[in-house]
Amino acid sequence: MQTKSMNPITVLTKQPASAVRSSALRASKNTKPRPGSSSRLALGRRYQQVTKAVADGSDDTASKAIAAAVPVIGLAGSAALINAHVIDEPVLSYLNTVGVPVINALNPPEFVIHWFHALNMGVVLFAMGGYGTYLGWRIRAGYGDEDTFGTPDSAAELHWKLMAGMGFFFLLGGQGGLIFTLLEDRTLFASPHAITATAGLGVLAAQGVLGATMKDSETLRTTHAYLGSTLMALFVAHAALGLKLGLSF
């Protein structure tokens, strides 16, 4: 009695279509036949890559749920920290010692005091963060080796540099925003803009740790990808709050 064999194409198509497409694309881009191997062996290896990627992608729903929940948790933690007022005095002392004397010595015009932080952070968000997010999705699609605009780095090499640079400039720029707040005689941490800023920096740090430690885990890579996009949405909301604050003051 003959055993009925299953067509691998039939097995593969039982998986969700989106998982098959994305996983197949990554496998086809990242798998190269060894020199001298036959086309049948190369196809077999590629098929194994595809089916493994499809199986690993079964946790996509959980990864997306985590990516959506982390910013919400960050916002809740940030609000609790700011509303407890435990950082008000240390931050105020630090700014009055380090930042405020320097800006007062430079004596910038009122327009700079009011809008420089917003303009500077807007450029960082959309130039570095926007392009870095685009490169992250290109890497996920299997194009990590492609050239990047205006640099000798590949997409994989430039992605983490841009996102790390964005975090560095956000950290410095956030301090500048607090200094300008004091110079305009406004209260520190008195608006939702401060909550989204603190939450954004915290989630960005967590995203960086995840990116450095995820290695080849498909589940963690999916979480990293979607968390990056939700984080960008959080920063855009933060920018909108800042613009509203600036226009109303």
- The number of helical segments is 10
In percent terms, what proportion of residues is strand?
under 5%
Q: Quickly give the CATH architecture of the largest domain.
A: Up-down Bundle
Biggest sheet descriptor: 2 strands, antiparallel
Instruction: Give the CATH class of the largest domain.
Output: Mainly Alpha
Look at the helices and sheets and give the structural class.
mainly alpha
- Order of strands across the biggest sheet? 1-2
| Shape by Cα distribution | globular
Report mean pLDDT, rounded to a whole number.
83
Number of domains: 2
Uncertain runs: 1-44, 46-58
Order of helices and strands: HHHHHHHEEHHH
Determine the N-to-C terminus distance.
Answer: 84 Å
* Secondary structure: number of strands: 2
CATH third-level topology of the largest domain: Four Helix Bundle (Hemerythrin (Met), subunit A)
**Share of helix, binned:** over 70%
Compute the CA-based radius of gyration: 24 Å
Transmembrane segments: 65-87, 115-137, 158-182, 194-213, 225-247
Pfam families: DUF4079
Biased composition (Low complexity): 18-28
Region (Disordered): 18-40
